[in-house]
Amino acid sequence: MINADLHCHSTVSDGLLAPEAVARRARDGGVTLWALTDHDELSGQSAAREAAEALGMQYVAGVEISVTWAGRTVHIVGLNLDPLCPALVEGLAQTRSGRVARAQDMGRRLAAAGVPGAYEGALKYVSNPDLISRTHFARHLVEVGAAKSVSDVFDRYLAEGKPGFAPHRWATLPDAVGWILAAGGQPVVAHPGRYKYSPLEFSAFFDEFRELGGNAIEVVTGSHSPDQFREYAEVARRYGFRASRGADFHDPSDAYTTLGGLPQLPDDLTPVWQDWV
Ligand code: AMP
Ligand code: MN
Ligand code: MN
Ligand code: MN
Q1: Distance (Å) from CA 38 to ligand 2 centroid
Q2: CB 185 within 8 A of CB 82
Q3: Cys-Cys crosslink for 20: which of 10, 51, 93, 118, Cβ 3.0 to 4.6 Å?
Q4: Which of 201, 209, 197, 198 lies closest to 236 in space, CA to CA?
Q5: CA dihedral 169, 196, 259, 172 (to 10 degrees)
C-alpha cells in the first residue's frame, strides 16, 4: 500500500521545520513516497532526499512554483524532476527575485493599515532571505496581536484585495510548466479549489495547462474540503488528468495538515506516481 504525500514545506521556504525534520514527520505519518515542495526554491532537495532514504521512504524531488494567470496567483507543483536542471534553477531564481521589494511594499501597506514595522517583524521569521513570504508576515501579525491566527491574518490583511496585499507578477504558466518539463518533471496544478476563477476561466486555465503539456492536478490536499476532493476528482476524470495527494504541511501546530493522514485518492483515478513506484 502506497502512502504518497507530495506537497509540503520546510524552513527553506515558509515551513517551520528543517527538511530533515519534515522527513521524520512524514515517516511518522506513515508516508512511503514523499516530496518536499518548497516555494520557488530547490535548496532543500538534497537534505530531503538523504533524510527520506535514510528513513526508508522513496523520494521524488519537488517544488511549488508561483505563477500569475489572468491576474491571479496560482501554484504549480513540479514532481520527480532534476533539481540541477539549469532552466529550472534559473527560472526559479528569477521568480524569487521580486520577493524583497514586494515584502517592503507589503510593509508600507500594512503600516498604512495601522500595523507599523511589519517588514522588520516578518524578517525575524525568515530563515531563507531569498524567500520572504506572506506566511512570515502572518506569523508576525499574530505575535503582535493584529489578528488571532494565521488564517485570520490572511482574511483581514493579506489575502488578495485586503489592505496588506501587494500585487505581484510571478512566473507565467508557460514558463513554469516549461521549466518543470525541461527538468524531466511532472507539472501538477496545486490545490485548484483555492483559486477564485469563474467556471469559464477555470476551463480556459485547465485547457491551457493541458496544451502546455500538463496532465495532473491535486485532488486530495490539505487545502481542499471533502466536497472539493469529489469536485476535483470529477475534474480529473473530465480532463483525463492524473491525480496527486499532499498535505501542504507547513507547521506542526496546525492539526489539520498531517503528513500521510489524508484520505486516499478515489480508486478509479490514475495517481501521478503511477510510473514511479
Ligand atoms: P506568498 O508566496 O508570499 O504569496 O505566500 C503564499 C503562502 O501563504 C501560501 O503558500 C500559504 O502558505 C500561505 N497562505 C495563503 N493563503 C492562506 C490562508 N488563507 N491561510 C493561511 N495561509 C495562507
Ligand atoms: Mn506556503
Ligand atoms: Mn500553494
Ligand atoms: Mn504549498
Answers
A1: 8
A2: yes
A3: 51
A4: 209
A5: -30
CB 219 within 8 A of CB 245: yes
CATH no., domain 99-158 = 1.10.150.650
Task: State in Å: Cα 167 to ligand 3 middle.
Answer: 17
Domain positions in the chain are 4-96+169-257, 99-158
Residues with CB under 5 A from ligand 4 (ion): 64, 248
Q: Using the predicted structure, report yes or no on whether residue 114 has a pLDDT greater than 90.
A: yes
Give yes or no for residue 257 having a pLDDT over 90: no
Which pairing describes strands 186-189 and 72-79: parallel, antiparallel, or unpaired?
antiparallel
Identity of the residue numbered 45:
Q
Q: Do domains 4-96+169-257 and 99-158 have the same CATH topology?
A: no
Ligand lying nearest the CA atom of residue 7: 4
Give 56-107 pLDDT, tens digit per residue.
999 999 999 999 999 999 999 999 999 999 999 999 999 999 999 999 999 9
For residue 13, what pLDDT is reported?
98
Q: Give the integer Cα–Cα distance in Å for 217 and 229.
A: 11
Q: Residue 140 class from Cβ within 10 Å (0-12 exposed, 13-18 middle, 19+ buried)?
A: buried
pLDDT reading at 123 higher than 90 = yes
